[in-house]
């Protein structure tokens, strides 16, 4: 069986029988079977989050008292719609998954993983101090995405999720 792996726009063909790694040899499972997936491109994640934040900002400004709550609801629930894909992720081609279950994130995982961003959005409504807190939380989340081997931020660690390029979930066993 041949496995096709796409890494940064280069496609490699690896014969399944020739594949071996230390992790696979030690556990008897391939990385995909253990729920280990390659990290999504960081720039794509930032662009998708920017699109989602623009939607939240638009909702907050259109109808001020209700818009803030609508924006917060969007932040918390966005990754639960359409197979783990918010509007930003759908446009950029990303997907939020639960690696161990090998399925897209649902509303429960979406709420848990986006709770830090939701709290930051609530803090943003407080002038000056809230703006600093918002920037600090988003900066921490961004640093974790860049520094983590699987691109998992604090919310991903809490919800046990990961963001992938769309289509990676259907990798063969």
Task: Describe the fold and architecture.
The chain has 173 residues and is α+β, with helices and mostly antiparallel strands. It has one domain (35-170). The protein contains seven helices and five strands; from the N terminus they run E-E-H-H-H-H-E-E-H-H-H-E. The chain has helices at 22-27, 42-62, 64-77, 87-92, 107-124, 129-147, 154-159; strands spanning 2-7, 10-15, 94-98, 103-104, 162-165. The strands form two sheets. It has a three-stranded antiparallel sheet with strand order 4-3-5. A two-stranded antiparallel sheet has the order 1-2. Strand 1 (2-7) and strand 2 (10-15) form a beta hairpin. Helix 2 runs antiparallel to helix 3 (64-77), helix 3 packs antiparallel against helix 5 and helix 5 (107-124) crosses helix 6 (129-147).
